[in-house]
Amino acid sequence: EQKGRCSYALDFKNSPKVLITTQSNIVLPGVSFSDRAWHVRFSNFYNSEWKPIDDFNEMLFMEWDIQQWSMLWELLADCINIFVQNRAEIDKLRLYNFDLRHESK
After folding, report:
1. Cα–Cα distance for residue pair 63/93, rounded to 1 Å
2. What letters, b where the CB count within 10 A reaches 16 and e where it falls short, cover 63-95?
3. 55-65, pLDDT tens digit by residue?
C-alpha cells in the first residue's frame, strides 16, 4: 500500500509464494507466522560415510536413463495427488508437529 493510493488485494492464485530451505529452524513470534509456516523434516540417513550410491550402485539423477526419470515424475505426481486428497489430515499432522517442536523448547 502506498501513501495517497487505495489499497488492493490479490487473490491466492496471483499472490506471491515464498519457499525457504534451510538446515536450521526459523522461529518467528506471532500467530501470523505460525499459521503460514509449514515445516518438513528429513532424516539424516545419508551422510559422509553412507551415500545414495552405496544403496543404488549409481549416482542419483546424473546416471539415470529416460525410464528412471519417468518413474520419478510418476512418483512425484502420485505424491502430489495423495497430498491433495489428504490435505486436512496433513494439516492436522503439521499442527501436531508444530506443537511438539514448541513444547521441546
Report:
1. 36
2. eeeeeeeeeeeeeeeeeeeeeeeeeeeeeeeee
3. 999 988 999 99
Nearest to 40 by CA among 90, 87, 1, 74: 90
* DSSP label at residue 61: T
What is the crossing angle of helices 66-85 and 87-103, to 10°? 80
Residue 24 main-chain phi, psi, to 5 deg: -125, 160
Cα 6 to Cα 15: distance, rounded to the nearest angstrom: 18
Which helix (H) or strand (E) is 53 found in, with range? helix 52-56
SS3 30: coil
Average pLDDT score over residue span 35-62: 85
Q: In the structure grid, which three cell numbers stand for residue 22, read together?
A: 534451510
pTM reported for the whole predicted model: 0.43
